[in-house]
Design goal:
The chain has about 400 residues and is of the alpha/beta class. The chain folds into two domains: about 270 residues, Rossmann fold (3-Layer(aba) Sandwich), CATH 3.40.50.300; about 80 residues, Ubiquitin-like (UB roll), CATH 3.10.20.30. It has 14 helices and 13 strands. The longest helix is centred in the middle third of the chain and has 22 residues. The radius of gyration is 23 Å and the shape is flat. About 0% of the residues have low confidence.
Amino acid sequence: MLSIAIAGKPNTGKSTYFKASTMVDVAIAPYPFTTIDANHGISHVRTKCPCKELGVHCNNCIDGNRFIPVEFIDVAGLVPDAHLGKGLGNEFLDQLRQAQAVIHVVDSSGGTDAEGNPVEIGTRDPLEDVRFLEREMTMWLFGIIKRNWSRLVRRIQSTRIEQVFTEQLMGVGADETRIKEALHNASLGDKPASWSDEDLMRMAGEIRKTTKPMIIAANKIDIAPKENIQKLLSLKDCMVVPASSEAELVLRMGEKSGLLSYLPGDSDFEITGEPSRAQKEGLDLIKSLLKRYGSTGVQECVNSAVFKLLDMIVAYPVEDEQKFSDKDGKVLPDAFLMKKGHTVHDMAYQVHTDLGKSFLCAIDARTKRRLSEKHVLEDGAIIKIVSAR
């Protein structure tokens, strides 16, 4: 399953974001290091289900909206120089290893200092918080490379440099494709033995970008000064989504209790119960926020991380291309997140290794056309795999 880390300094609303997106019960408190051990939960990416377009009934979506599970890892708050052991230190950077992408939750209100302690709103420049996490992750990777650099240089003399870096950094999600991209972008020349520490840091920075792409959740927009939001949105090298995890959590809890009708990512909600006066006032404020921003931003962050940062598409495997179902008649039973550019043969392997090994061809369930193993998947593809089994 795809894994996404929720990271940032303490007291930015990370745990609230995590709970609002996963509905996992975690500790939430207005002080640093509320989270000690990483929390794990299941969030979902939202996409349009093909069932309505096909005129079939699907039990796996909600009113035509498909929610596909992704793993969330709520990493404990990081502080500047965490890579040197400050705060809760390197063990929590290590919790980022298994994540394919990072949602960096930033306090856009400027109401917390560098270490997450509460200060007057507007005191802290949120742009400083954006850069610190990038630096901590880069220095973490630099440390992994630097510790073994002499040995790596010797190996590079007899082995391809991409292979050496990939083997060294496989534990953080590196592969040869990503390493080649990082080497190209770093432009360090073809003599690694002459690379300086600054060169290695540049290489580490490029590896961070390719192995741990990051999106900024500009959190606490309900209390943030407008100029802070504008500053964050003006960043040219970062994807930034304004968000209010507090508002999303209120809506999710209201929906769970039957007070509201709401789906994550919706631009509005309907009151279906009898709220108290205080609840009604709070909901009115959230309605105003939704009107201004279009959503709470929490679901948009997840979707942007999956579909934009990681460049994924959705494909639906079926066994009966006539009924768009599995062998038991369940319509569109599964939805797979696939990397854009992957083929139907790649999809067969993702469904099951044996299906990939015995692959003969595929059938486009929409057109009933036979597809070769090299056919590239399109977003929303509904595919029957034909195997030799």
